Structures are given as C-alpha cells and as structure tokens.
Amino acid sequence: MKPPRQIRIGNDTLTLQARSAGDGSYELRIGMQTVRLEAGPMNNSGFWFIAADGIRHRAWAAMLGSDLQIRVDGHTWVLGSADPEHGDTAATEDPTEVTAPMTGTVVDVLCTVGDTIAKDQDVIVLNAMKMEHRLTAACDGKISEISVEAGSTVEAGDILARLAR
Amino acid sequence: MTESGAPFRRVLVANRGEIACRVLRGVREVGAAGVAVYSDADQGARHVQIAEAAVALGAPEPAASYLDIDKLIAAARDTGCDAIHPGYGFLAENADFVRATEKAGLVFIGPTVEAMEALGDKRAAKSVAKAAGVPCVPCFDGVDASDDDMREAARRLGFPVLIKASAGGGGRGMRVVTAEADFLAALTAARREAKQAFCDDAVLVERFVQPARHIEVQVIGDGDGGVIALGERECSIQRRHQKLLEESPSPFVSDDLRQRLESAAVSLAREVRYRNAGTVEFLVDEAGDFRFLEVNTRLQVEHPVTELVTGVDLVHLQLWLAAGRSLANLLPEGRPALRGHALEARICAEDPQHNFLPAAGRLAVCVEPEGPGVRVDSGFGQGDEIPAHYDSLLAKVIVHASDRAAAVQRMQLALKDAAWLGLPTTTDLIARVVEHTAFKSGDLRTDFLAVHPELLAGNGDPPDTVLQAAALAGAFHSTSSANSSPTASTASPWDLHDDFRLSGAGS
Fold this sequence. Notes:
The structure holds 2 protein chains of 2 kinds.
Chain A: E1 6-9, E2 12-20, E3 25-30, E4 33-41, E5 47-50, E6 56-64, E7 67-72, E8 75-81, H1 89-92, E9 97-99, E10 104-109, E11 116-117, E12 122-128, E13 131-136, E14 141-146, E15 153-154, E16 159-164
Antiparallel strand pairs in A: 1-2, 1-8, 2-3, 3-4, 4-5, 5-6, 6-7, 7-8, 9-16, 10-12, 10-15, 11-14, 12-13, 14-16
Chain B: E1 10-13, H1 17-29, E2 33-39, H2 46-49, E3 53-58, H3 69-78, E4 83-85, H4 95-103, E5 107-108, H5 113-120, H6 122-131, E6 139-140, H7 147-157, E7 161-165, E8 175-177, H8 183-198, E9 203-207, E10 213-222, E11 227-239, E12 242-248, H9 255-271, E13 275-284, E14 290-296, H10 303-310, H11 314-322, H12 327-330, E15 341-348, E16 350-351, E17 357-358, E18 361-362, E19 365-367, E20 374-378, E21 385-386, E22 393-401, H13 404-416, E23 419-421, H14 427-435, H15 437-440, H16 448-451, H17 464-473, H18 486-489
Helix pairs in contact in B: 4-5, 5-6, 13-14
C-alpha cells in the first residue's frame, strides 16, 4: 500500500506530494508550502534528506493499518490518513461498536443484551498474545448485540458487540 | 561430555523467537548441534534458519506446539538429541516436562525436578527462603483457600495487595487490588489468566510494596552445593509487572548491600543444592531493606546484562553444568569482578499509547543498531510476520560501557539509530525513559511510568522534518509498505505518486 497523500494533523487535512527535480533534489508540496531539498534512498530501506537546517536526516516509513508510521531522527510518528483510497480511520470508528483490536480468544463476556452500560465500562475480556485485555464501551448505551461467547476466536477488526445509544 | 569435547552431541531448543536464537548460538558455540522446533506460525522464522535441524510441531496455539510435551520429546528423540534446553517461558519451569525429558533418557538443561518444585512454585519458594533465613514479603499462600478466605487474608495483609499466579511469571496471572470491593473480580481474572498461561490456577496474595525497586541476583549452581552469585540486575522500569528496561549493576546497590543480597540469594540456592542458572528476585525499599519475592529457575530475558558485566556466558555455563561439570572447574576464580555497566531495552510490539496493547503483523522495517558495546538479541528480521499467538518481544538492545552515564548515552544512540516499523513498539518510550532526569540520576521504582506519566504521552504535533519525510515516503516507500504484495514491493523504488513522474528513472 502506498503512503497516504493526505494526512490528518489535529483537525486539519494536509496534502503531501513529492517529485524528483532530476538533479538529486526533490520538490515537496506540504499543504500550501513548497520545499526543495536533497534526498536519496539508503540501502536499509530508509531514506535520507537534507532539511533547511543543513543536517542530514534519516527516515524510515511503513504503513500501520491505513496510517503512515514514520521514523525520523530516532522518533516515531503515526500520521493519520485522510486519504479516501486508504480509508479515513477517523471517519470509520463507530463508538457504538466494540471491536477486537487484535486477533485473540474471548475469555469472558461481561454483559448481556439489554444491559445498560456506561462509557469505559468493560464489555469483553480478550486474551491475545498471552495477556488479557479488557475491551470497553466507547460511549454510554444499551447492549443491542453480542456476537461472540467465551472461547470464540476473533480476528483484528471483528465487531464483537454493538450498543444502541 | 562427548568425544569431541562438547557437553552434548545435539541439543533441542524447545522455544522460539529471540531466546531460541540466543540459546541455539550458545549450543553451537560449545560444539553441539542445535535442533529447533517451530509451529505453523513460525515456519521460516530466524530460529529455524540458524539450527542444524528443525522439527515442525503443528498448529500455532501454544498448547498444540511449544507447550506439547509429547511432541517435544518425540522431536528430540527423532533427531537424535541427548539434551533439551527450554529457554524461558513455555515449559521452562514445568516439572512434568523435566520428568518427561529424563524419562526419555535425555538431559534437561536446567535444575533437577526437586529444586524446580522447591523454588519454581512461588508458595514453596517462600518456605525455602524462610528456612534459609531470607526475609519475605508478607503473604497468604492460598493453599486450599476459598475465594472468601483469600479476601479475608487480603484484608488482614492490608490493601493494596498483589494477587499472583503461584506458577506464574512474566506478569501473567497478576493483579494489583487497591480496594476490597474489587478483590473477587481480580481474583477470578488472575486465576483465569494463570490457568490459561500455566495450566494451574493456584494464586497467592501478598502485600503490595510501593515505592520499591525490583532487584534480582543472578546465581549459578552445580548441584553439588557449589553456588556463585553473579551480581545483581535492577529491573524496576516495568509495565504491567513486566520488565521493560534492565541494568547491571543497580545504581542503588552499594558494595555492602550487594554483599547482603548475594549472600541471601546464595544461601537460598544452597538450601536446595541448586544446579543451573537461576534468579532470586527481591523488592528493595528506599531504606535498602530487601524482601524475597520469587526464584526463576531458568535463564532470564535480561540475562545479557549480567553476561556483559561479568564476562561469563550463562548459556555455556548452563550446558556444562547440566553435563556434570562443577563450578570449581568452570569458574575456578569464583565470582568474576563486575566490569562497567550494562543496560537492556526490550523492544516489544506493543502500543504504549494504548495501555501496551500488543500488536501482530508484518515487521516492515527492521534496522538493528550496531557498534562497539552494542549487542542485539533478536528473533525476527525485516519482512517477518509477528504472530498473535506468542509474546510481543521483537528484540533486546543491550549496551555495555565503562560506567552508567556512558551506558545511558550508548543506549540513547543505539535506539536512535534503530528502526522497527510496521507495528507499534516500545522503542520511543524506552528512549524517553533513558533520557529522563530521574532515570539518569538512578531514581528508579517499579511504578516509574505511573509516577512520570508524561513518558507515555505521544510526540505531539510533528515538526517540519517529519512532514517532509512523510512527503518523501511516497518516493521511497518500496520495501516498507506493510500490505504490499511481492510484485508491488519489487516495483521501482522510484514509484511516485500519480501526479508526478520521475524523470530519468524509466518509470
């Protein structure tokens, strides 16, 4: 998957573009700004660039779900994608769904359909990577559906329960 | 000893990930052949690649693979092994596994069944400690106790209390309970987690001591009463009762305290005529008073810091001791002097911003640090899939320098130069910890992350250089995209965004 062309910074959406200027330098468009700088690949799958400070910076990038995970000068950032073709994660998060953050086994379901629960209340206990994780409700509501039981194996992203607000 | 002068001819390493790689290297260094085992989720894993032989165990679930005693014994027999090394975790402290190994005529590279049972079980270990005159954290052992008995005992100990799996380790089956109202729910959860992780739901409850430091002593014994302590490790920087950053020596431990800790650990190990590497864990309070916590009758995750400051190879020692050599023969000078300072950072596929939720997936970028005084023990490389079935440890970055300040600087640079991407990791968090003034001044405690919550915050708004790198990522993304197919990832590294064409790159 290609890195997103649009990322979210706070409430803003920023468009990112890069093109080679042909002489070892690149022209970058970051939102309304245009920057020209020297850059090139490294043989360890990263790349380098010389920023306005005159310093050679090293970076690596990977996709983390639909977001861009980028490591520059020893710090890692996750930039949310606002790219329609990647799926805008902010737009797809539904607080009435309790989803599995990763593959695992349900060890306990703490509510039944019809229960009134509060935001942050534990709904499901999931065992993943040998640890128990408590999955909580993202909003107040009433449990309208529970699609798993103790022992169910679930995949990352599976909807395990739904709430009605 | 074999005719070739190796302690064993062929050793099965009943583990996976970084520790299987570490042990396989040790096995091969002493002249034996190494046999790996792997589940379906670990086909082609690094530990499989570096072994002289490898045996498939089957389905990824630990119970069907790395915890299946019959399969492991059969694998050892079928490949002509004469010994089994358990690594840590999985069956490393399972006495039934030791029995099965010995029954099959193989040597278990670890303690005897008796010593393991006397020390490996947290309840039993406390009575050994008491017999050896070592002070213990006040606790209720919970033998045959009902849930109400446990709650009553917790009330007598005084909240907060810590519920712990008797067979436990690695933070699993462990719960801190601050109020009586929460006790029964926590007890149920701890039992369930213990049952799942160790096939044993026995738990004990002890007083939760805080602030405290976690300081442990590495011991090594030959089973004939020879026991040597190899200094201490401080492992106070933890998340979820699991260690994150360890060091040796401890910045808190004076020569006098070290002598007392070592002597307590040695007398405890002597009490059971301990053979093998082992770790005696203590909680140490601000006054320097220490209380025994538990013994780990195996190699520890953090063993490399001890190796770096003592110059011994603990895996070699384990192998030779299991083959019957004495400590007088292996370490005739006794305890080596401690040289310099070592730190170990655990790089785990976990998200510190989301309560350390572990993540599985493809390790899209893996750049390990290198240089003088830098050691990396890892089990995965770039492009490897990190399965969801096992623990989240990707690599350990271990540094050694002449003193603590130099070791901290070396760790800062090692982490800065490294990259593990495609998954959230603990890398940045540990980098922030080692740069923190409290850490630098040696002011450590087991709730360090809770006391310094700013360490868990993200990096804030990205500076210009990060946005520039993000824009450039479009130009250089070829091998780093997590979900790309093999064809896509071998496409031109100059594969730019649609709007742009790269001149002169043939695209």
